[in-house]
Design goal:
This protein is α+β, with helices and mostly antiparallel strands. It has two domains: 119 residues, Trna Endonuclease, Chain: A, domain 1; 159 residues, Mog1/PsbP, alpha/beta/alpha sandwich (Protein Transport Mog1p, Chain A, 3-Layer(aba) Sandwich). Helices cover 23% and strands 33% of the residues. The strands form three sheets. A seven-stranded antiparallel sheet has the order 8-9-10-14-13-12-11, sandwiched between helices. The longest helix is centred in the N-terminal third of the chain and has 15 residues. It is globular and about 65 Å long. 38% of the residues are buried.
Length: 312
């Protein structure tokens, strides 16, 4: 069948095989299964999933349900709503809807605006083989963990950078190096609270002081905090949102979001090209809104605990 699938020249069984085989190749180390039945928590009946992807991420398991649409028409809002219903019923928070005939604009918007507890992506089957952002960044330090999903059109890079960050995100088509040099670049890290710095405000202030010590001409401005929504009955976390202008040697402003946790803080930083704030700041806000803060009970020191808490 080659690297892509030609519409309607294959049966729906062959189409599902193509999706299954492609995902197996794209996500090494994952358990990829076809035609799985899962118990519906609300409906009380078995729900069918075309392709199920499970991958261990440290002490956690990432599960993605994939719906393969082999229709002659575009995927509609109704198709998206039905799949969202299945995801909610089987308690899977990540879904990918693959369409052989494309999708309507309203269907795409519906997928992008899925409920707080569910993230759904909808893509064209012909782009599946080059699709890079099935998945997310899962990072942790101590008892603090966070799950960060990429906005549409962005790639998650889980390669850590010693003494810098635990994950990064950049636009599809870039490498990490090219994004850092020429494009928008977003990275994140968890900072644990300590006795000298027991609050989110103390950690953010210390970061500002450290930057000012190296770049006396730098300036910071606090912006309206990003409002996070409640999920799984939890109280929304407080945030700090700021813009920093470091000066010579920087390509543009640096936007930072701090998301509070009882034991630490998730820090997200966007390096934004000058004059392109309106293009890329919404991506940072999206990641900050969707990020899930969790407790980690992992016994030993996990390998993801690399990178310092230095920001900037």
């Amino acid at each position: 069948m080659g690297a892509s699938v030609k519409r309607f020249e294959v049966s729906w069984q062959e189409y599902e095989t193509y999706v299954f085989s492609t995902l197996s190749r794209l996500i090494p180390g994952a358990k990829v299964e076809r035609d799985i039945r899962l118990p519906g928590i609300v409906s009380g009946r078995q729900r069918q999933v075309d392709v199920l992807v499970r991958k261990a991420c440290g002490p956690f398991e990432l599960t993605i349900a994939v719906d393969c649409k082999h229709h002659r028409r575009k995927v509609t809002v109704s198709d998206v709503d039905r799949f969202l219903g299945t995801l909610e019923d089987v308690r899977i928070s990540k879904g990918v809807l693959v369409s052989a005939a494309g999708y309507t604009k309203s269907a795409y918007r519906r997928a992008e605006k899925a409920s707080r507890d569910i993230e759904l992506k909808i893509i064209d089957a012909e782009r599946l083989s080059e699709f890079q952002h099935i998945g997310c960044a899962l990072l942790w330090k101590g008892s603090v963990a966070a799950l960060c999903s990429p906005p549409s059109g962005w790639v998650v890079d889980n390669q850590t950078a010693p003494n810098s960050f635990q994950f990064s995100m950049y636009l599809l088509g870039h490498s990490r190096e090219s994004a850092m040099r020429h494009g928008a670049f977003l990275y994140g890290n968890i900072v644990l609270k300590t006795k000298p710095e027991p609050t989110m405000e103390a950690i953010a202030s210390r970061h500002e002081v450290a930057v000012l010590a190296e770049c006396p001409g730098a300036s910071f401005e606090r912006l309206t905090p990003i409002k996070r929504e409640s999920w799984a009955g939890r109280t929304p976390e407080d945030t700090i949102f700021r813009i920093g202008r470091v000066g010579a040697g920087y390509r543009g402003p640096e936007y930072s979001v701090y998301i509070d946790h009882p034991e630490g803080v998730l820090v997200l930083v966007l390096l934004c090209p000058e004059g392109e704030d309106r293009l890329y700041v919404p991506a940072l806000k999206w990641v900050a809104t969707k990020a899930l803060m969790m407790e980690c009970s992992y016994g030993a020191t996990p390998p993801a605990e690399v990178g310092s808490d230095r920001i900037g």
